[in-house]
Every structure is written in C-alpha cells, then in structure tokens.
C-alpha cells in the first residue's frame, strides 16, 4: 500500500512548537515582508482567512478576534521538516520526500495492522516533534493524496484515512472536487468544470478513450490512478531529483537592484540548463535572497515560490518567472549576501506533454531554440556563448508594497 504523510498547517504548527500559548488561538504566518498570509491555523481558517490574502484586507478580523500574526521563518521550517522526515525514515525505511511537508511511503501491512501502524506513526510524529500530521493510505499515490485530504479535514478519522475498497474509493471521489485532485492543474480544472465535470468521480468515470483523445499524459495517468491503477512510480536516477538549486554567495554585499536581478537571472538560466540536461521539466520555482547575518546592519531574508501553468524547461520562461517571484520579495535599502533559485515539482520530459490549450507552434519553436542555444554554449571553448540571463529587468520592476 502507498501512504502519504501531510503535515497539518505546517508553518503554523512549527510556530506552535515554540509558542505553545497560541495553541487553540487563531494564528497566521505571514510572508513577503509580512504583506500577505501564507499559512493559517484551523481557528484562523474558521474566521474566513485564506492563504494569499493581504494582511491589510483582514485587519478588522485580526483586531476583532485577536488573531496572532507571525513573520515567517523559513530556515526554522526547513529544520523542522528535516526533523520530521528523519523520524519517519527511522520507522519506515522506504520513503520519498515530496515537499517540505509531505512524504510518500510504502507500507507492508494490510487490514487491521495497516490502521494500527498508521495511528502509531501519526501519534509518534506528534509526540516526538510536536507536528500534527495526516496520513492517507491507498493503492495509488493519487488516491493516497485524496485519503490524506480526508484525514486532515475530518476529525473522525483521527488522522488516518484508508481507501482500500472500491466502495470507499467511489465515495471519496464523489466527495472530492476536481480542483483538489493532485495532477489536475488550474487551467484543466477550469476547463473540466465548464464542461460539467466538477468532482473527481465524474472525471474518473469518463471513458478512457475520451481522456486519451483530449488530454495529455499526466492527465491520463491521473485518470488511471483515480481508478486504482498505479502508474506514478518512485523516480530513479535523474528523475529521483526532487529539486534543482543554483545559488551564490556574493563576494560583497549587493545593494544594486540590477546586479541582484542579473544574479537571479543567471541562477534561473543555469537551473533551466541542468533541467534540460537531465531531461526534466519544472512545475514550480522558488527564489530566496538573504542579507549578511554577520554584519551589524539591518537584516532581511525571504523566500517565495510560484507554480508554472504547465511544466517547463524553457530558459526564458523560467527567467521571467524568477523575476516575478523576486518582485514580490525584493526590498530596497538592504545589502544582499546570498541569492538562489530552486526548480521543483520535477517531472520527466518523456511523460510531459503540452496541455490542450498551449500554443504548440510557439512551444516547438522555443524548444528548438533551446537546443540550438545549448549546442552553441556547449561548443564555445571560451565561455562566451549565448546569455539569455542578461535580459532587461525594466519590465520586472519590484513591487515594494508587499
């Protein structure tokens, strides 16, 4: 059986381990220099606070209900993630870390043993690390994701939901919105809703011939997985890469905006090149910037991420998105010492196809351009090849309003 552990309200849960007085109190974690909400406790969700909402829009709620607001501390969250993952690895040898707060596992149990072990694992993680988690178990990764969502939303599961019969599968998919299904992107979800497919069960009930004729390979794999047919296997070799990171520590503090943007462009271009060499496509990009912690000047560190509309290895698209992310976190007046770009949610190029709504001619031209550019750069003995990374930043001016 395949299992997925998902840490509940992870950033908030991390904060509660060092501020236990806030347990049961509406709490939000802020990002982008405290400009918007990036995580909420269940109590804050009950007040109608949603992820991504600007703080100024909920000032009335914050004041009326004494909502605790905490500045995000991503280094702390990463360290807590490592603590949780190390504990899980000590109990379950075959795991695959999917993100900072999610991990897939293979469990050699069935029946009552499966439920008993699931509850033992959930309780052990909570008692040892202080992080509450939800555990979803089923026959495929996509169904395990569905199960974990139910385990998180409904207290009656006590943190563990198991979908091990066809009756349970049908009931769970009937109660799951298509937009909540892993592997169904925003654009495809919107398209399916327009044609009357609003639940996961409606999608899974469509004839496969219709799915294969209209949708790309990832959508076809999602359909198979929702119908209990495993086809998303654990990655190997290059595919085992969970992320590609390119970063740099500057020899001096960087105060010049153009210099920082050029560095981020170079990081993005290098990460895109690595992805193409490995035959991988990126589904998400993150950018971080940090000042020098050893200087006695004002400190500022931040990191943010955005998802691509569809997986890509295109240098120009990745640079453009890196600037969008940087726009949201850049602040004037600081001397930056480190910066970096990470590509994540990687998928093999062989299994990635453009969506039905893509400009296929333009994608083909861009793909050919990347091949030519890589060939020229690879053959350039002096290292003066084509540098897309030096593109102008005039159209990517940062927003300092948070």
Spatial ordering of strands, largest sheet: 5-6-1-7-8
Overall number of strands: 13
Radius of gyration: 22 Å
Approximate strand percentage:
15-25%
In which range does the helix fraction lie?
Answer: 40-55%
Q: What is the mean pLDDT?
A: 84
**Low confidence ranges:** 235-240, 353-360, 379-386, 389-402
- Name given to the CATH homologous superfamily of the domain at 237-396: DNA polymerase, Y-family, little finger domain
SSE arrangement, N to C:
EHEEHHEHEEHEHEHHHHHEHEEHEEH
**The top level CATH class name of the domain at 237-396:** Alpha Beta
Give the overall form. globular
Total helical segments: 14
**CATH topology value of the domain at 237-396:** Dna Ligase, domain 1
| Alpha-carbon distance between the two ends | 44 Å
CATH architecture of the domain at 237-396: 2-Layer Sandwich
């Amino acid at each position: 059986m395949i299992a997925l552990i998902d840490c509940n309200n992870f950033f908030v849960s991390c904060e509660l381990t060092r501020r236990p007085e806030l347990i049961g109190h509406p709490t939000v974690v802020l990002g982008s220099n405290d400009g918007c909400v990036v995580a909420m406790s269940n109590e804050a969700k009950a007040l109608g606070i949603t992820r991504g909402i600007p703080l100024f829009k909920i000032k009335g709620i914050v004041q009326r209900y004494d909502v605790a607001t905490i500045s995000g501390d991503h280094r702390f969250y990463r360290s807590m993630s490592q603590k949780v993952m190390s504990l899980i690895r000590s109990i379950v040898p075959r795991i695959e870390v999917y993100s900072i707060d999610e991990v897939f596992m293979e469990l050699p149990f069935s029946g009552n043993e499966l439920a008993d072990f699931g509850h033992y694992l959930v309780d052990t993680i909570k008692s040892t690390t202080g992080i509450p988690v939800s555990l979803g178990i089923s026959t495929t990764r996509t169904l395990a994701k569905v199960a974990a969502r139910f385990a998180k939303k409904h207290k009656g599961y006590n943190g563990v939901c198991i979908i091990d019969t066809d009756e349970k599968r049908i009931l769970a998919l009937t109660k799951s919105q298509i937009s909540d299904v892993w592997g169904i992107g925003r654009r495809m979800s919107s398209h399916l809703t327009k044609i009357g497919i609003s639940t996961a069960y409606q999608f899974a009930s469509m004839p496969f011939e219709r799915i294969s004729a209209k949708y790309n390979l990832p959508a076809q794999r999602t359909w198979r997985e929702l119908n209990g047919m495993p086809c998303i296997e654990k990655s190997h070799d290059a595919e085992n890469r969970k992320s590609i990171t390119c970063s740099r520590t500057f020899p001096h503090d960087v105060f010049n905006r153009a210099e920082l943007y050029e560095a981020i462009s170079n990081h993005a271009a290098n990460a895109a090149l690595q992805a193409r060499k490995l035959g991988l496509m990126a589904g998400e990009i993150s950018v971080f910037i940090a000042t020098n912690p050893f200087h006695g000047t004002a400190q500022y560190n931040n990191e943010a991420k955005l998802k691509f509309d569809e997986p890509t290895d295109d240098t120009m698209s990745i640079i453009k998105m890196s600037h969008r992310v940087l726009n949201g976190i850049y602040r004037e007046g600081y001397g930056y010492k480190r910066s970096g770009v990470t590509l994540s949610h990687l998928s093999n190029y062989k299994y990635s196809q453009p969506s039905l709504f893509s400009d296929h001619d333009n994608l083909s031209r861009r793909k050919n351009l990347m091949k030519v550019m890589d060939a020229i750069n690879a053959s350039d003995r002096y290292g003066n090849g084509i540098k897309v990374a030096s593109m102008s930043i005039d159209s990517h001016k940062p927003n300092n309003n948070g």
